[in-house]
Design a protein that fits this description.
By secondary structure, this protein is mainly alpha-helical. 60% of the residues lie in helices and 9% in strands. Strands 1-2 form a two-stranded antiparallel ribbon. Helix 1 packs across helix 2. The protein starts with a helix and ends in a 7-residue tail after the last strand. The relative contact order is 0.11.
Length: 67
């Protein structure tokens, strides 16, 4: 689980007083973990999404590059 509270703490400190090199590296790492988490969550949601046509047929969504 990504520590969003810590990300917000570092963002606030960055705006007010600045970050040390270690804090900047931590912020960058946490931000990358957060983005990866959001992408994985969205991909999981899309993997379980179906389109229903007017006849009631369900078709699973596929990636454009997999068609």
């Amino acid at each position: 689980m990504v520590d969003v509270k810590r990300i917000n703490e570092l963002a606030k400190k960055h705006k007010t007083e600045g970050l040390t090199e270690e804090e900047a590296a931590e912020r960058k790492r946490l931000h990358a973990e957060y983005i990866a988490s959001v992408k994985a969550s969205l991909q999981a949601q899309l993997d379980n999404t179906y389109v229903v046509d007017e006849k009631g047929n369900k078709t699973r969504l596929t990636r454009k590059d997999q068609q």
